[in-house]
Amino acid sequence: MAETTSEKKINPMLKMGLELGPIVVFFVAYLRLRDQTIEIGGTAYDGFIVATAGFIPLLILTTGILWKLTGKLSKMQVATLVLVIIFGGLSVWLNDERFFKMKPTMIYLLFGGALGVGLLRGQSYLKIVMEEMMPLKEEGWLLLTKRLTAFFIGLAVLNEIIWRTQSTDTWVYFKTFGLTAAVFVFFMTQGKIFQDYALEEETEEG
Predict the structure, then answer these.
(1) Would you give the end-to-end CA distance of the chain in angstroms?
(2) Where are the domains of the chain?
(3) Measuring CA to CA, how many Å separate 147 from each of 114, 129, 187, 190?
(4) Which residues are listed as membrane-spanning (predicted)?
(5) Best label site of 22, 26, 77, 132, fewest CB within 10 Å?
(6) H or E, element range at 166
(7) Whole-number Å distance between alpha carbons of 58 and 118
(8) Which residues of 161-197 are buried (b: 16+ CB within 10 A; e: fewer)?
């Protein structure tokens, strides 16, 4: 699915539903299946693996619908989908939940690493993705990118600590609610950057 330049406008609630729906369905499916073992083709799978197996095609479907309706997918959406297919697929194929639990680590390392490479080149790759949403001066973009790079790497480390030391229940709650809340809180606390480095709209005196 390639990123296109023209984006069609759709209902924001529909867009949010397509983006968050698979995560919610995974969470509900896991809660219902976590104490069950299901035998498929002579192999026993626990509830986590079964919920993961359902999550992958659902995410492919909703991402495809989003692409069809908007005519555009961000690089982050494409990268997330690819990593879900790879790591989720490995978990199901090898019947090993660890691969799917590693997926957020890989995603955040990928995003943080990409932003870091841009910073080493004196550029803000974040600006390329979000410039239309948040018009900022170059200094503001670089500062926000540095903070977001450190934030993504921190989330990657945190995910590793949680899935390696805590129960599957704890990790699922962290994945469903903790990571989403952390990203929301991060941007909410960057208000001073948006205030200090906002581009002033040009006005014509007449």
Answers:
(1) 47
(2) 1-94, 97-199
(3) 13, 16, 10, 9
(4) 12-33, 45-66, 78-94, 106-126, 147-165, 171-189
(5) 132
(6) none
(7) 33
(8) ebbeeeeeeebbbbbbebbeeeeeeeeeebeebeeeb
Q: Whole-angstrom Cα distance, residue 177 to residue 174?
A: 5
Regarding predicted confidence, which is higher, 88 or 198?
88
Query: Confidence band (pLDDT; 50, 70, 90) for 206?
Result: very low
3-state secondary structure of 96: coil
Place of tokens 């995974």: 26
pLDDT tens digits along 7-39? 677 888 898 899 999 999 999 999 999 999 999
* Contact (Cβ atoms closer than 8 angstroms) between residue 1 and residue 64: yes
Tokens standing for 88? 């989720």
pLDDT tens column, 168-197: 999 999 999 999 899 999 999 998 998 888
